[in-house]
Amino acid sequence: LWRRSLEYSERLEDPSGIAKTSGNLGAGYYAAGETESARAFLRAAYHGATEIGDFRTAASAVTNLANLALDQGELSDAADLYAQAVAILSRTGEHRHLSAVQHNLGLVSMGLGDLQGAREALEQSVQLSRLHGYPEDEAEGLASLADVAQAEGEYREADELLERALMLSEETGSHVAEAGVMHSMGLLSLARGDYRKAEDLLEQALVFYTDLGRAPDAVDVRQDLARARVATGNLRGGLRDLREAEVLADSLALGPLYAADLALTAADFNLAINELPVALGLFRQAQELYADGNDVVGQAEALEGQGFLSILREDYEEARDLLERALQLRDLA
Fold first, then answer.
1. DSSP 301-324
2. Cα separation of 60 and 27, whole Å?
């Protein structure tokens, strides 16, 4: 149907119809998992809409291009595209769309290790949601902002942000927002070393995400839950969660950064049970996958794991080299 519509618009030499229909075709191919066709039509929609000043169509197209890049683990490209979407949406008055894109830009910036950029984007997202009356969106933004505060070591600020986010999610009855808050609270407890509390919070988040059918989020939570269980000495439970996360990720054909996260979690697990050669191979695999996605923080964590293994082997020269490379990557972030 959309192809016939595009052919009709082309015969009429209707640039507006061509841009909008190309955008619809691109979105359809994206939903069907046909990446290259999706990119081609979305780029055509973006350029065509930009030429005629149709900023809504242009914003929709470039947002989908950013989402596609994120799905493929192309974080740098995703950040650039989300930034373009922000610039366009700032002219259209679509406040909720702009808030959502700012949120995504913040998450990608965090993945790239740009905590200041992540904070700025998420603060703007939260401000827009609060100003225009979208409390469930505000709750999700606050939870993500708490993740940034936690990464910066600002645990008290993270507590305050999560308290506000939990109150909003409960007031609005948004289970999506509440699941995100529980996940972030679990991550904060993990960072503090309160592993039992982390385990309880992450289990609650997993129930929410499973009931909501949000499988990719369930993959993330299972990985974090595996870390919490291993930290409490529940190796069997940690292995079960890790395997279930791997099976779910494979069934969803998630992007390379999910594979990288899983490899890193598996490496930590094998380190905990003293399977050092297996852990080394997984750390190296994670490093390569993170490098493919330009995730410098992930690369640094994988190199640090390899460095720790070198210390255990008493190969201090190799350990120094690996840890210096990790430090350089963190400085770049």
1. HHHHHHHHHHHHTT-HHHHHHHHH
2. 9
Q: How far apart are the first and last CA of the chain?
A: 46
DSSP characters over 250-261: HHHT--HHHHHH
Q: What are phi and psi of 293, to 5 degrees?
A: -95, 5
Dihedral over Cα of 301, 198, 253, 174: its sign = negative
Q: How far is 198 from 200, CA to CA, in rounded Å? A: 5
Identify the CA nearest to 154 among candidates 126, 116, 181, 124.
Answer: 116
Tally of CA atoms within 13 A in the half-sphere of 265 that contains its CB: 28
- Tell me the per-residue pLDDT of 94-153, one tens digit each, with 9 for 90 and over: 999 999 999 999 999 998 889 999 999 999 999 999 999 999 999 999 999 999 999 999
Task: Report which secondary-structure segment, H or E, holds 1.
Answer: none
Assign 4 to helix, strand or coil: helix
Its pTM stands at 0.84
d(CA 69, CA 298): 18
pLDDT digits (tens, 9 = 90+) for 267-309: 988 998 889 999 999 999 999 999 987 788 899 999 999 999 9
Q: How far apart are CA 160 and CA 185, in angstroms?
A: 11
% of the chain with per-residue pLDDT over 70: 98
Torsion over CA: 14, 16, 22, 27 (sign): negative
- How many Cβ atoms are within 10 Å of 90's Cβ, its own excluded? 15
- Inter-residue contact 297 to 333 (CB < 8 Å): yes
Nearest to 238 by CA among 200, 211, 199, 183: 199
Alpha carbon distances (Å) from 78 to 17, 90, 97: 27, 18, 16
- For residue 190, give both structure tokens: 């993990």
C-alpha distances out from residue 54 to 10, 51, 57, 89, 150, Å: 17, 8, 6, 11, 40
CB-CB neighbours of 116 under 10 Å: 10
Give the separation between CA 304 and CA 324, rounded to whole angstroms.
Answer: 9
